[in-house]
Amino acid sequence: MQEYGFAHVWNEGDDITRAIAIVLLIMSVLSWAVILYKFGQLFVLRKRGKAAERFWQAGTFDEAQRWLGKSASNPYAALVAAARETQESEARSHLAGAFGADEWLRRTLMAVLDEQMARLQNGVAILASVGSTSPFVGLFGTVWGIYHALLVIGSTGQSSIDKIAGPVGEALVMTAFGLFVAIPAVLSFNMIARGNKAVAQKLMRFAHDLEVYFMTGTRHKPQAAQRKPQQASGPVVPMQRPSAK
Question: 178 - beta bridge partners?
Answer without folding.
Answer: none
